[in-house]
Amino acid sequence: MNPQPLPHDLPLQLPLPEGLVKHLLVLLFLIHILFVNFMLGGQSLAVILEIIGLRRKKYDRLAYEISSTVTVSKSLAVVLGVAPLLAINVAYTTYFYSSTVLIGFAWLMIIIMASAAFLLTYLHKYTWESWGGSQRALHLTVGAAAMVLFLAVAMVFITNINLMVLPAYWPRVAGFLSAVLLPSALLRYFHFILATLAISALFAAGWFGRKGYDLARLPDFTRTEVIALFLRIAFIVTLLQFVIGPSLLLSLPVHGHSLAVWLLLLTGATIAGVMAWIIYRELGRAPAVLGRSYLVMLTLLTFTALFMAYGRHYYRERAVNPHRQAMMAKTEAFMWDAKAAQTRARMGMTREVYKSSGEKEFKANCAACHAENTTIVGPPLTEVRGLYAGNPQNLIAWARAPQVKRGGAPMPSFNHLPEKVLQEIATWILEGK
User: Residue 411: its pLDDT value, please?
Assistant: First the structure.
């Protein structure tokens, strides 16, 4: 097994019971992600329909109507994102902060990318009429740029969420791109993008197909045409999710799987399948009754989201549990060591006695990663003695220019230490004196 970094836990009291914090996280995140879906999916649909509208004018008008909803969804997504962000920082402090630091530059770029995307969506919306004709290509470029930035923000966020449940892979991560290539990251991303399109299409079918909507704003469409168009998009995209979903589930590390996780996810998938069947049946209805099952679709979508969200939550809990247990044990040992040090200080026993200068230098430079019989980050001393018995110069050469042989975190070079100090350390390790 690869060594894992085990940061100390935070022995601080939570502001609410842990279970309540985690339930709030799931529910608040669902509300937030709903408007993220409307924002990202709406902008994507607007750009796609605007491209179609270059040849078929009526789709350009429909694209404009969709883009008018994006700025509102954006504002709600931002406001509603504060609560789940606070909840995840409380419930999964060590994991969220660790994954964020590992992709730190990309995470900071979210602020710039999201700000630019917000400004571009306003520009895209309010220049629709004035940038017509010869400037249509420029207008479309602005909308596509906003869409790409939204997609990039989603990629960073999903990569972070994926990374936080994979502590065993943290030593391998060397920035954002390496984190993207970890198991399940890209599959999670594509599954999420398909979900945004499906949810946005269902929203559009209800929003533009409702009786209160002024259809004069879409003069070349009938109400049933609008409903059928967006239900068809939702149906196709949902079918694609059934292709990616199983691959995503199987790509997740097995130690996070359980019967409860599978039951929750399979139940959610079954409900989604029923919803897809109802959409398919609805598309075959007569125009006069098209859309009558819309509330049923929304109800099924809501239950699908709940089961999927809790399935992911229980998977996350199981995935981080081995690391959490190791971290708790290390924290407990640290607390006992701290108490012992405080006791020694009260008794005046503040000076540690070393048997040799080699032991002193080892504990100052090497003990953070090496122990006698236990793997911390590097191999135990018993293993080192077996590899370098009678060859202290080879051990010194390795310390000056270490290499990665087994994966995991690379050992730093100790070429900065004087030859005498390295000799003393090597002698103490190999001979115990």
Answer: 81
Average pLDDT over residues 407-422: 81
Q: pLDDT tens for residues 154-185?
A: 999 999 999 999 988 998 898 999 999 998 99
d(C-alpha 406, C-alpha 379), whole Å? 11
Looking at the fold, whether 320 and 363 belong to one and the same domain comes out as no
Give yes or no: residues 75 and 211 share one domain. Answer: yes
Residue 268 sits in a domain of what CATH number?
Answer: 1.20.1630
Is the domain of 269 the same as that of 381? no
Structural domain ending residue among the three candidates 277, 310, 328 = 328
Mean pLDDT for the chain overall: 89
Residues 321 and 364 occupy one common structural domain: no
Residues 189 and 293 in one domain: yes
Q: Is residue 390 part of a domain?
A: yes
Q: Are 410 and 402 in contact (CB under 8 A)?
A: yes
H or E segment at 346? helix 294-346
What residues have CB less than 8 Å from 376, skipping those under 6 apart?
Answer: 3, 368, 369, 370
Residue-by-residue DSSP string for 231-296: HHHHHHHHHHHHHHHHHHHHHS-GGG--HHHHHHHHHHHHHHHHHHHHHHHHHTS-GGGTTTTHHH
Question: In terms of domains, do 243 and 294 share one?
Answer: yes
Domain count, the chain: 2
Dihedral angle, C-alpha 415, 421, 427, 428, nearest 10 °: -110
pLDDT of residue 413: 85
What does the pLDDT look like over 17-27, one tens digit per residue?
A: 889 999 999 99
pLDDT value of position 2: 40
Distance CA 373, CA 380 (A): 5
Q: Would residue 70 count as lying in a domain?
A: yes
Number of residues in the chain:
433
- 413 sits in the region (left: phi over 0; alpha: psi -120 to 50; else beta) called beta
Residue 257, pLDDT above cutoff 60: yes
Domain that residue 426 falls in: 357-431
Could you tell me which residues come within 8 angstroms of residue 132 by beta carbon, excluding any fewer than 6 positions away?
139
- Residue 237 inside a domain? The answer is yes
Co-location of 365 and 311 in the same domain: no
Cβ-based neighbours of 269, under 8 Å, separated by 6 or more:
242, 245, 304, 308
Structure tokens at 381: 């001393």
Render 39-107 in DSSP notation, one character per residue: HHHHHHHHHHHHHHHTTSHHHHHHHHHHHHHHHHHHHHHHHHTHHHHHHHHHHTHHHHHHHHHHTHHHH
